[in-house]
Amino acid sequence: MSYLSDIWGSRELLQNLTNREVRGKYRRTALGQLWSLANPIAAILIYTFIFSFLFRLPAQVGDPSGLNNYALWLVCGLLPWLFFNRVLTIGVDSLVANAGLIQKVYFPRIVLPLSLANATLFTWLLEMGVLVVALSLLGSFVLPWLPLLAVFMVVFALFSVGVAMLLSIANVYFRDLSYLLTIVLQFWFYLTPILYPVDMVATQSDRLGGLAGTSVTLLNLYQLNPVEGFIEIFRNLLYDNAMPELSRILIALAWAVGAFGAGVWLYSKKERQMAELL
Amino acid sequence: MSNWAVRVSDVSKKFRLYHERNQTLKSAILRGRTSKHEDFWALKNVSFDVIEGHTHGLIGSNGSGKSTLLKCLAKIYWPTSGSIDYRGRMASLLEVGSGFHLELSGRENIYLNGSILGMSKKEIDRKFDEIVDFSGVEQFLDQPVKNYSSGMYVRLGFSIAIHVDPDILVVDEVLSVGDEGFQRKSFEKFLEFKKRGKTIIMVTHSMQVVEDICDTVTWIEKGTMMATGKAKSVVASYKRSLD
Q1: How far apart, in whole angstroms, are the C-alpha atoms of residue A225 and residue A191?
Q2: How many separate helices (H) and strands (E) can be counted in chain B?
Q3: Helix (H, G, I), strand (E, B), or coil: what is residue B2?
Q4: Residue A66 sits at the chain B interface (C-beta within 8 Å)
Q5: Cβ contacts (< 8 Å) between A275 and chain B: which residues?
Q6: Residue B115 and residue B127: Cα distance in Å, rounded?
């Protein structure tokens, strides 16, 4: 408990470090914060051209929203993924990159990954804001779902930062972890239904039936990926304008609590040794 | 001796000395994890009290363990065994300007660095002018600190740190930052600090400084405490050991 009150006591520091990240990042660039939108826009253009125009992926019709627009459908899943990706790739280095600070000043170390996640959350918020405007203009009645969307953004952020915290400590022991992570994230991206719908995996899974003589199907394995559930939830809210399944919500909550809890627990264990390990 | 501000009880600190340090997954997987280390005791059963309002010096030759002790006192390292207790707020000053963000302005960095050192926003607001005055960088306050000269950089860093105003201050040999004028100014700040009844713990190599401002001294050699007590007598026996 005293560890949690320690974290609470350093919330101003957390806020200041977040500001440092947000303001420092795009300082002295002509477009400033707008740069953070450049990456997703490029990705949307490329993926829409390849998957919707060239590969002719089946149309994704939102139920009950009636939307039929691959680019929008894609972004609803892509933006959460990009957030997750950034939190992990930046977060994994949060301790090693701040070694100088950790060895000279005492403060709760957990504010380092938390502040990075906060700064990334800010960027994500900006992107989602643009997306919500675009969705509304193109006929999605997304406004009533915004409160729930905000809740799930927080839940997903907790999950992401939890994983990032675990990775950041592992990275202290194994310095090549961040390189490995880049590759893992690449696999992870294509194994998550962002570019294609889960139905396509389900079709293949039905064709194969139980794997290796068991009743476990390909789809079962595929859905072990926690990000899959989160992406579905975001698509339900944004694109379909529908309530996500209760089981999905509960699983997402469990992952978030589990990952964040494990991250905080590991920090409370390892925090005192941090300065000498680095 | 009940009015202690810092109590160091039976503190030991063990480090691992690595002969072959394995820090990559690659070698862990390909060769099995083969970090070889032996234990090294940087500190062994060190105990002393620092009385409230006293200035306490830590002395010893290079590699004696006094910096390790200082880092334990600053809560950067945690003792392997034993404990350190504080009465009052502790702040440490081991390096100036750590945590500055180069792209941010001096003004923004005062807030950032101040909060890293444990000040609240209100406190910084209140002391802001004093900090700027003391550092003498007003003119460049809205410039990014990457454009600062190294002197301005340390002066600003030092100025923030000295204004944290803790009950207990833990300092490394940072009295020697900036030019002569600034050094004198920071030395006076220390004396003022002392006069206000604050506790200071410092590491220094200069016996002159110790004799001038320390009330009590702990002398450490090879991780063991040789003597602790009144500055004069401990320094005398330390000097005798050098001859």
Answers
A1: 8
A2: 8, 9
A3: coil
A4: no
A5: 71, 76-77
A6: 13
Percent of chain B with pLDDT over 70: 94
Most confident of A247-251, B158-162, B211-215: A247-251
State the average pLDDT over residues B180-186: 80
Residues B209 and B191: beta-carbon distance below 8 Å: no
Pairwise CA distance, residues B135 & B125, whole Å: 16
For residue A160, how many C-alpha atoms fall within 13 Å in the half-sphere facing its CB?
Answer: 30
Distance CA A31, CA A179 (A): 30
Give me the residues of A, 85-104, that contact B with CB < 8 A.
Answer: 100-104
pTM for the model: 0.87
Pick the residue from chain B with its C-alpha nearest to A19. Answer: B112
CB distance B25–A174 less than 8 Å? yes
Q: How does pLDDT run across B40-70, given as a tens digit for each residue?
A: 888 888 888 998 888 898 988 888 888 888 8
Strands B216-221 and B55-59: parallel
Could you say which DSSP state residue A50 is in?
A: I
Q: Once rounded to an integer, what is the mean pLDDT over residues B71-76? A: 88
Listing DSSP states for A211-278 in one string gives GGGSS--HHHHHTT-HHHHHHHHHHIIIII--PPPHHHHHHHHHHHHHHHHHHHHHHHHHGGGHHHH-
* Domain boundaries defined on chain A: 59-277
Q: Is the pLDDT score of B233 beyond 80?
A: yes
- Give me A162's structure tokens: 């939890």
CA–CA separation, B224 and A135 (whole Å)? 70
Which of B65, B89, B87 lies closest to B77 in space, CA to CA? Answer: B65
- Kindly determine whether residue A20 and residue B101, on different chains, have CB atoms separated by under 8 Å: yes
Q: In angstroms, rounded to a whole number, what is the distance separating the alpha carbons of residues B200 and B208?
A: 17
Beta pairing partners, B20: B36
Could you give the strand order of the β-sheet that contains B216-221, starting from the edge strand earlier in sequence? B81-86, B4-20, B36-51, B224-230, B216-221, B55-59, B199-203, B168-171, B90-93
Whether ipTM > 0.90 holds is: no
The secondary structure of chain A in percent helix, strand, coil, rounded to multiples of 5, reads 75, 0, 20
| Dihedral over Cα of A182, A186, A191, A195: its sign | positive
Q: How far is CA A237 from CA A146, A170, B132, in A?
A: 8, 35, 50
Sequence-separated contacts (24+) of B212-215 with Cβ below 8 Å: B213/B55, B214/B55, B214/B56, B214/B57, B215/B51, B215/B54, B215/B55, B215/B56
Q: Which residues of B touch A169 (CB under 8 A)?
A: none
Contact in structure between B96 and B174 (CB atoms under 8 Å):
yes
What is the Cα–Cα distance from B241 to A111, expressed in whole angstroms?
46
